[in-house]
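Field notebook, page 152. I keep forgetting to write these up properly, so this time I am using the form the group agreed on. The chain and the ligand, copper (II) ion, are recorded exactly as supplied. Prediction of the bound pose follows.
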Amino acid sequence: MISRQHIHSIFLAVAVILVAVVVTSCSEDEQTNPNPVVNDPEPLLNGCKSSTSVDLRGTTAVTINATSAWDLSGHQACIIVDVGTTVTWEGNFNNHPLVGGETPTTDAASPITLGSPMSGTNPVPITFTSTGDFPYYCSSHPSTMKGVVYVR
Ligand SMILES: [Cu+2]
C-alpha cells in the first residue's frame, strides 16, 4: 500500500529531477549560444587608428607644426604617409621632448627616437624608409601629447 508520505517523496523526487533538467539545458544554451564578443579589429594606438588618420600620401614632405601649443590631440597627430616621406616636427623640444614609442614606453629602435635630438627648438626632420606604425609622444606629457605616423 502506498502511503501519503510515499506519494509526497515521489513528487519531491520528480521535482528535483525537473529542476536539474532545466538547469542543465539552460547552461547548454549558454554554451551553444554565447554572447557575441565584439573585438575592435584595430585598437587605439596613442589615441590613433589608421582608419581615421589623415591620409597625407602623395606628398614627400609633411610638417607637424606644433610650435604654439603642441596640441597633438588634433588631427595632425595621426597621419598616414608614403614610404620615403620626411616628417618634420616643429616645436620646443626642451619643454616637450619628442620620443618614439607607445606612450609611456620609449621605443629605442623607433626611427623617431633615433632621429630626434629631443632638445632645442630647431625642427626635427625624420625620413621614414619602411612601412609600419610609428607611435610617438612627448615624454613630459605622455598622456596628452601623442600620435602615430602610419607609413604605408
Ligand atoms: Cu609636452
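OBSERVATIONS:
- Residues 1-34 form one domain.
- The longest strand covers residues 132-138.
FOLLOW-UP: compare against the apo run.
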